Amino acid sequence: MADMLSTTAAAPAVIRRADYRAPDWLIPDIALDFDLDPALTRVEATLSVTRNGDHDRPLRLDGDGLVPLAVKVDGRTLEEAEWHLEAGALIIPLSGDSHRIETLVELAPQSNSKLMGLYASGGLLCTQCEAEGFRRITFFPDRPDVLSRYSVRMSADKARFPILLANGDPIEQADLPDGRHSALWNDPFPKPCYLFALVAGDLACNADSFVTMSGREVQLGIWVKEADLPRTAHAMKALKDSMAWDERVYGREYDLDVFNIVAVADFNFGAMENKGLNIFNSRYILADPETATDIDYDGVEGVVAHEYFHNWSGNRVTCRDWFQLSLKEGFTVFRDQNFSADMGSHAVKRIEDVRILRAAQFQEDSGPLAHPIRPESYMEISNFYTATIYNKGAEVIRMMALMLGAERFRAGSDLYFDRHDGEAATCEDFVAAMEEGGQIDLGQFRRWYEQAGTPHVRALLSHDPVAQSVELTLEQTVPATPGQPDKQPMAIPLRTALFDPATGQHHGDELLMLTEPKQSFTFTGFAAAPVLSINRGFSAPVIVETNRSQADLAFLSAHDDDPFARYEAMQQLMVNVLIGRIAGQDTDDGAVIDAIRNTLTDPALDPAFVAETIRLPSEAYLGDQMKIVDPDAIHAARDALQTKIGAELMPLWRDIHAKTKANAFSISSAAKGARKLRNAALHYLVASGAQDGPAIAFGQFSEADNMTERQAALGTLANGSSPEREAALDIFYNRYSADALTLDKWFQTQAFALHPDAVEQVQALGQHKDFTLANPNRVRSLYGAFAGNQWAFHHGSGKGYALVADCIIALDKLNPQTAARLVPPLGRWKRFDEGRAALMRAQLQRILAQPGLSKDVTEQASKSLE
Ligand code: ARG
Ligand code: ZN
């Protein structure tokens, strides 16, 4: 491998956490002057620089693709010999301890296809600087521990760019000759350059206001294309709810007089928390019943909250270096998860979050790209915006919150914010504040920051009828991961309860701390053997294996008072049946069907919770339970069980489907729950093979007054081969082809379809006139979705692998960040049979052999081959 890399391209440099050094120069102030134009933008920067410590190193200003047209020091233009470029960076030797540096560069935003730095999107000009995009705008020490006060002047053609926005507060506006105008913005809070932003364009504003807890009025603006204004109400509500929530739950108040959000169509990720000027992928702002599903509505609410919460967890307290990324991301995900739970159902939100964790993070943690939530090294930091940093990072915070309890956790977070306000902090700073503020020893717990891999816990319960006691033996192992062959035991908090099967009650919920490789806990007062409920609420991000029988699981699926544990018991019941079938055994599915029937007919249960628990584990999750994944056997077994459940419970499905039809659309939790259950019923009804299934689905598709029911019906039809399938796809396309976000659903539905011809269909869609590699949402809708469709992507011929590799190779030339995100599915070859593994490796090698491959894709593909 090393040989191959060295013959094709120089291996990208490895950046190590251990090499951190404080910055040589500080930049207390920066003034930027943008002469904006999509074809040619001029950027003048004036930096006040001060020497940091006693050293004689030159000033080094990062740059990426920049050419300095002029360099001045203290007003004097330098000769070319007085500076030089080194790996894109501008190096200037300086004699004194503080100087004024001026630079001038030119940019071409309209040809910036990487969508990092200043770029054009749908007639707008906008920026994305995290992690290292600012160096594509101007020469600057592009690292998060250099904090500066920004003053930003923009000038542009007034007709094309009537709105000019930047961070902080608007200071002045002026008309200029030749139809141009200018605006000046000032941000009083020192910030790292990754939080810089500007937007210029023809935008309309949904304007509102919020009065903070100290009585200050903040002007809120959500800026979109005029036609999209009616789709911004949900985002505005989410913003105001978030502002109130952060005051109530964390005591954190917003600090500027304005807070603006802009939606753009072309965006590499979800959104960005630039100070006072959040920039969003439009899919996380725009929502109306006609085009957005309930999942989309929840996505808008969660991401608006996430970016808003960053104002404290990320902006006021930022990261010292990018190895600390989880400091802001893990904590902020934890905060947005709890916010969303408070806005809706705690039980359902927890189930959804765990499902995402297992689908994305557990897979990452068990593969070649596994890394701790605080990594030790990277080649390209963009590759570390991962489910591990975000979602496992949030789980680690959640465990601390659980161990501390609400009050002490709040004391810890108060201490953290107060102590580090205005600073660039580390994960260790956070843990130390929790330790001190919350009065707890987190010594061993810190291993969650150091060790990668999902811990496995084996829980065995044994009953002694004579002593009337039970012994719970817990054993943990942390699997080897790249660079970490040997692991230390972790501190694992496990919420546990023991149920008396006779009464259906338990004897209290206890938090057991598993800290040793093997530990036993004894409980007395059990004449009969109890049933174990463990990792309740998913208290720790671990894989638990138990010796519980199908009868125990069936009992818990009906009686556990912890909704997550109840869901989990049901899932395990299904997993056991399916894994047996996949292995060729004729396992009995009676308990599964009974449990689903009981759940469906329990009037005490929330329909949204019912819908979650009755769905079969995904094909990918079943694959995760196997040493060697057999995609075809998994699909066959799951499909057959689905058909059987559909047929056996047919009257229930029909009844629920009819009963949950609403008269008018509402976005309330109750209405969302009813739709979720209705869609689940439709899904089983069609899966049963009932003659009228496709017609009923087509009926729902045609009559629905909302996208949640319309898309679910389309998805159900897409799995089959009925005439209704093609009819519905055509209708959907004709109705929405002009609306990019909704057309994405048309691509995505087909890429997700459990259809034997899915590979050919995706291949054809890649040639469709509406497909483009220039828009990341479109790429993710087709190839991202397809790579997550286990049965289709892992087609035994390898044609699915070739399709994704072709996309990666083509996209890498335009947008390496988004291309690199498609690599990990190809890296899971160790989990597949030798035939598939060889085909996957061959595609990774083909990718690596491309001349001029980006650092982003090189890192992901080369690590994936190891
Ligand atoms: N900080 C942003 C968020 O989580 C994500 C930025 C991702 N950007 C990137 N280049 N990886 O809200
Ligand atoms: Zn974030």
Automatic annotation (TrEMBL):
**What's the Enzyme Commission number for this chain?**
3.4.11.2
Q: Which reaction does it catalyse?
A: Release of an N-terminal amino acid, Xaa-|-Yaa- from a peptide, amide or arylamide. Xaa is preferably Ala, but may be most amino acids including Pro (slow action). When a terminal hydrophobic residue is followed by a prolyl residue, the two may be released as an intact Xaa-Pro dipeptide
Peptidase M1 alanyl aminopeptidase C-terminal domain residues:
551-866
Name the protein family: Belongs to the peptidase M1 family.
Q: Where is the Peptidase M1 membrane alanine aminopeptidase domain?
A: 235-446
Hydrolase: present as a keyword of the record? yes
EC class (word): hydrolase
Domain Aminopeptidase N-like N-terminal: start-end pairs: 112-195
Molecular function terms, GO-annotated: alanyl aminopeptidase activity
UniProtKB keywords? Aminopeptidase, Hydrolase, Metal-binding, Metalloprotease, Protease, Zinc
Q: Where is the Peptidase M1 alanyl aminopeptidase Ig-like fold domain?
A: 453-546
Protein name, UniProt field: Aminopeptidase N
Q: Which Pfam families match?
A: DUF3458, DUF3458_C, Peptidase_M1, Peptidase_M1_N
Record flagged with keyword Transmembrane helix: no
This chain is encoded by the gene named pepN
List the cofactors: Zn(2+)
